[in-house]
Amino acid sequence: MRLVEPEITMEVISDAKPVAIVSGGSSGIGLAFVSALCKQGYQVVTCGRDKAKLDAVEKQFPSVDTYVCDVASRDDVIKWLEAIRPVYPNVVLLVSNAGGLTRVNLQDDFLRSDINGDIYSNLCGAINFISAFLPAVTQTSGGKIIVVGSGFGIAPASYAPIYSAAKAGLHSFCKGLRLQLQGTSVSVTEVLPPVVDTPATAHRNDKKLSANTLVTATLKAAKQGRSELYLGKSRLLPYMMRIAPAITEKIAANS
């Protein structure tokens, strides 16, 4: 996939604006983060796989720089890093958001099922993105990393076992990342929401958490240095998994 390169004449941004880098910012939760961060005075840089959607983001938010990049591809992420590292040295916030859910029935023919897609997009993509930009954010005093996880990473959905496994892996990755960042001023905040109201969930008629609600609460939690944030229907998940794990998993399986 081709990366949208900045013009070679582009100079280092030297003003005092803090820089926030958001993966998957062309729609849904990612776009809500882009909007909120622009309003808070950040210089926002984001990526996505669909150039048309990214062009629409730049039209809506002229100050935002967008790049075509699939974070599941290590090569894409390296090109993106090399493109923006000389331009935006003042990175204070990473938002790892890119991903998606695929309904998979493991009893189907293996050749007809996209077994690996959700692992690459939800887990490998987050690891690629955070690992690439981690040196930049650790150079900033009080840098912050936000990771969009899922309650299904704690109690899996029966219709999305691969997605649930990827989010469970992401949950563990966040814990390991915090351990490695001990002794630094960088915090890692993982938000674990229920189903969120985005274009990807438009077909669902059940109650959904709004993307703006998620973003507002998550940015507040990150500012406070919180490690984990459970929202909406997921709010009681840690407690319920301790006192009634079997019942909780049964409820989550079909939610």
Automatic annotation (TrEMBL):
Its EC number is 1.-.-.-. Pfam families: adh_short. GO terms for cellular component: membrane. SUPFAM superfamilies: NAD(P)-binding Rossmann-fold domains. InterPro entries: NAD(P)-bd_dom_sf, Sc_DH/Rdtase_CS, SDR_fam. Keywords: Oxidoreductase. One of its GO terms (molecular function) is oxidoreductase activity. PROSITE patterns: ADH_SHORT. Belongs to the short-chain dehydrogenases/reductases (SDR) family. This is Putative oxidoreductase. It comes from Zhongshania aliphaticivorans.
